[in-house]
Amino acid sequence: MELVVWAGRVLLLALLYLFLAQVVRAALRDLRLPAAAPEAPAAGAEPPEGAPAGLPVAPPLAPTSPDVSPGAALLEVVASPGAPPLGRRYVLRPGLVIGRAATSDIAIPDPFVSTTHARCDLRGGRVWVEDLGSRNGTLVNGRRISGPVALRAGDRLTVGRVTFRLVEDGPPVSAAAV
Amino acid sequence: MSAVARAQERRLLLLAVLIAATGLTLVHLAGGAQRPWTPVGVGTLAVSGFLVPHLVLAVRQGRARTAPRRRAGEGVSTAGADGVSTAGADGGGTAGPDPLLLPLAAVLVAVGLPAIYRLDPVLLLRQALWVVCGQALMVAVLLAVDVRAVARYRYLVGAAALLLLAAAVLFGVEVAGTRQWIRVGPVTVQPSETVKVLLVLFAAAYLSEKRRLAGGAGLPARFAAPLGAVAALALLLLLAQRDLGAALLLGTVALAMVYAATGRTLLVLAALVALVAATAGLATLFPHVGRRLVAWRDPWSDQQGLGYQVVQALIALGSGGITGTGPGLGHPDVLPAAATDLIFAAIGEELGLAGALAVVCATLLLAARTFRTAARAPTALEALLAGGLGTVLAAQAVMILGGILRLVPLTGLPLPFVSYGGNAMIVNLVIVGLLLRVGAAAGAGGDPGLLRLRARLRRLGIVAVGGLVTVAVALGWWQGVRGPALAAHPANPRPLLAERAVARGTIYDRRMRPLAVTVGEGEGRRRHYPSGALAAHPVGYASLRFGKAGVEAAEDAHLRGLPSRGLLAALGVPLPARTRRGGDVVLTLDLEVQRAAAAALGERAGAVVVLDPQSGAVLAAVSRPAFDPNAVETDLPRWRERADAPLLDRVAQGLYPPGSAFKVVTMAAGLAAGTLTPATTYHCPGSILLRGRRVTDLGGRGHGTVALDDALRRSCNIYFIRAGLVMGGAALRRTAAALGVGRAPAYDLPAAAGHLPSLQELAGEGVGQAAFGQGSLLVTPLQMALVSAAMGNGGVLYRPFLVAARRAPDGRVVWRAQPQGRRVLDAQTAALVVRAMVEVVRRGTGRAAALPGVVVAGKTGTADAPGGPPHAWFIAFAPAEAPRVAVAVVVERGGAGGAVAAPVAAQVVRAALAAAR
User: Fold this and answer.
1) B714 shares its domain with B751
2) Which of B490, B833, B846, B874 can pair with B905 through a Cys bridge, CB separation 3.0 to 4.6 Å?
3) B518 and B448 inside one domain
4) Which of B97-106, B573-582, B698-707, B771-780 is the least confident region?
5) Per-residue pLDDT tens digits for B188-223
6) Residue B85 annotated in active site
7) Cβ contact, residue pair A30, B30, below 8 Å
8) Which CATH number belongs to the domain containing residue B658 in this structure?
9) Which residues of B674-692 are buried (b: 16+ CB within 10 A; e: fewer)?
10) What is the ipTM of this complex?
């Protein structure tokens, strides 16, 4: 009988630590950072907000358009107060301007976005983003940028309350204006 | 949001239920199986209740998948706007309530309930009720509470909080120096718990609103001022209640939230300094605050007064060690406030460092996940709310655990989800509900200020986790490193309680005559020794103050009902508390023989030991001077001071030169080595020089030319010196060692080894000294009795033993001693020695040992010892043809062996043979 009690004590502690091990494993999985950490000096060392790694790219449902080049760099909307819609993708063209003005390449009707807010360029095979003197600033991976910053796949670009994610080699999608 | 995560949540919750059931069952078994199983069932059900909110979450999640909802201007729901599924392969997912919060709360409850049950089943039933009430409220929160809606009424919420506190001050009942409680009908309400949540709600709503007005950037300091006023007011009210712990907690939470909202590190640091200064100032204003600080700095200096709680908590942790005493088997009930403030110490005692560390880990993970929820909240309001609530939980845990572990002064705060207390439990479960509510809307953010807010919340989370890691390290230090020292601390009542809990078993002699019994009940229980000083040394004594000796010490485990042999003992398994009576021990001692031996020795110092040569059983062991074990508590210190050392067991530990009694060993050695035969003769001139000292025989006249048997019969020193010189040191040592000289015999009581001279010591003429029992030779009476027994037994030596059998309290014999013998001398040698020893008694120096009707064999010894008369020795066995008893007698400073020791031996042998019939 005493042996049963003793075995029960061992069992209790074993169960407790089994529980904790599973919790720790799940928690660590959540802490894993996304694949690409930015190398550009202006971009901060702060990890992107808690998005888990390996998030599969969701197939967007926006209509396709014929004038598109495969293998282009794209900006995908991953956070938005409403417009532009989540999941919308924009093809990056050289000199692409993001702003509140309707004439912007990516127009965002958000009061927190300046008229001309930021510009994206393609230089030396890389995507560069630059703040155009906006009031609220442009953030890359959560850090406010002061000069031109190079983006890598998976980086997050925040303008106002909208956050884009840089996607490379994605399936072709139209670049919508307005 | 994944079904995977909810499935994992369910698995963990079921595991928590299993943990609760196991813990409760163990406590139940330890208490004795007569009690009803109700509390075990109730506790398990209460923990299973966590599945209800889990189901609510799962159902809601399933519904959200099929009907995506989007609210403009706010975060995104679990299903994306374009039907984008964000189901992650990971456990957490990007959105949805944290799947680890509920299980972590559940497992803390699962560990707390058995600890409470162990202290009082009634408390367990109540706690289970509070858990269920809290779960019900949690479900209500999940279903009905919209955080943003509540935030609209923030000023109402803040006012309600202040009103509740004021009510406690005005209408509160004074309990233990504080006014925390309001009696409402049959229950007592503790407003400070609810107030914590209300104030955090108010602060989160207020701060987020002000942020929004300021354009989403960091908040200027002036906006924090009204909040500071509210906080200050609340603090003052709490202090008026004298609820120091809650006041400190609130201050910490307020600071954390202000930091998160404004990011003004300097402001926060300044406020922190002000807080510390205020506490110091309070220490002078309010005496009880000062007392806590003193108790923190040095609790050991006033263990009965100020430091009592901390000291007892640490001792409890130390008594638990690494694996704990086992549920229900420790003594957490001696802890003050065991179910509330010090529940952690109670858990640490019974589940050990392993269990206590698990609690700290679970709390740490809970805090971490709470801050993670905060750092992923879609709006500033929810982020601040989650951060504030997380700070409440984490700070509370750090303060109470840190207080127990002397990292901070001890304050009366409950350990979340573990401590007994309905108000705290219900409020904490509501907190979890609110956190799950926040999680239900979490997604990626778009407000740039929000990102900085999140970063600050993450930093707060790291501080919280760091605090709990420090707690874990301190726990490892106190319980792991300092544990044994704490358990041995004099302020630890546990050894006393353990002794009192069990009625010590009885020690009997071989005819079941009691030698040591427990008499009396309860406090008046004590140990009584019916034979007094007669068997004082073998039986020993058992004193809580002075320790134990003799069989009382050797068989202590069995006498106290603990397993002393076998697998259970090896594993360190204590018997459950049901054991009320220890086991009994039966000795080989025969009280009649013991009495006769003591009478024969009389008042003289010395020892008598009687063995059965054919088994090794010790029939009598008398050591004089002795003591009366009934007077141990009062007289032991005095006995320790006496020069004649009454506490020394001379039988097994008295060291004397053997003198001529050793010649039987020399004879055997020479015979075995072949250097001696019965026909070997040497001439004894009466006096020789050995190593510069004169050795004489027969007063200088000498024995003339003698052969072996005659030399032994007349105990001729010079013959044996010559024989020794011829055989050499190695040969003498070999036989002596085989007979046990120079080695401690394996005996039930501590036995001395004596001294067998080394080869260097025996070089040259040294062997001559040893050959007649002088020089550096030292033996104990027990060893000489064994030599005698081996000779009489034809060269087979049996291991001596005193404990014959162990019985269970019901009388069953659970163990019996098995005699162990081995051959140490060949039979012919032994036979020759026996023949000579018979002559010693018949016609030689041992005539005084002769008895009518039985042939006694023996050898005298007169051992020179500097500083007084020689010791008188006599070893014997009888009947010589088939010995049933072997005896060794030494009379300290008694003089001639034949004149003094031999008569004693005769009386003892006669009594022993009579008793053996």
Assistant:
1) yes
2) B874
3) no
4) B573-582
5) 777 888 888 988 998 888 888 877 666 555 556 566
6) no
7) no
8) 3.40.710.10
9) ebbeeebebebebbbebee
10) 0.70
